[in-house]
Amino acid sequence: MKIKIDLRTPAQGNEALAELGARLRFLRKEKGLTIPDLAGRMLISENTLRSLELGASGVSVGTLVNALYHLGELDSLARLAPVDATLVRKSRKQSNAGLKPVRDDERDF
After folding, report:
1. Per-residue pLDDT averaged across 48-76, rounded?
2. For the segment 21-46, what is each residue's pLDDT rounded down to a tens digit?
3. Do 40 and 51 touch, CB atoms closer than 8 A?
């Protein structure tokens, strides 16, 4: 299966995705799982899993999270963008503070 290079993604980004895919493939094999095994557990197609393992940029972040969960590596996500979790929670609370529920007369459907 050949993966198209996404020209919107910097070359370093494509390289990082390929490396991530290789790591996921290694983890899958270390767990003794085949592509059909893991894809079945994830409820995705085998081709989607192959694309993830090849570093395709079009595979969703949700699919990556799903794979990490089933490989027992979900905690590794915290290392992707290392920021103190308390600062993130505080920032989210502040950004949500100004949100108000939408009234029925404001709905446009």
Report:
1. 95
2. 999 999 999 999 999 999 999 999 99
3. no
How many angstroms separate the CA atoms of 99 and 83, rounded? Answer: 25
Alpha-carbon distances of 26 from 7, 20, 22, rounded to whole Å: 27, 10, 6
The pLDDT tens digits of the residues spanning 3-12 come to 666 667 788 8
Q: What is the pTM of this model?
A: 0.71
Rounded CA gap, 80 and 97, in Å? 27
Residue type, 80: L
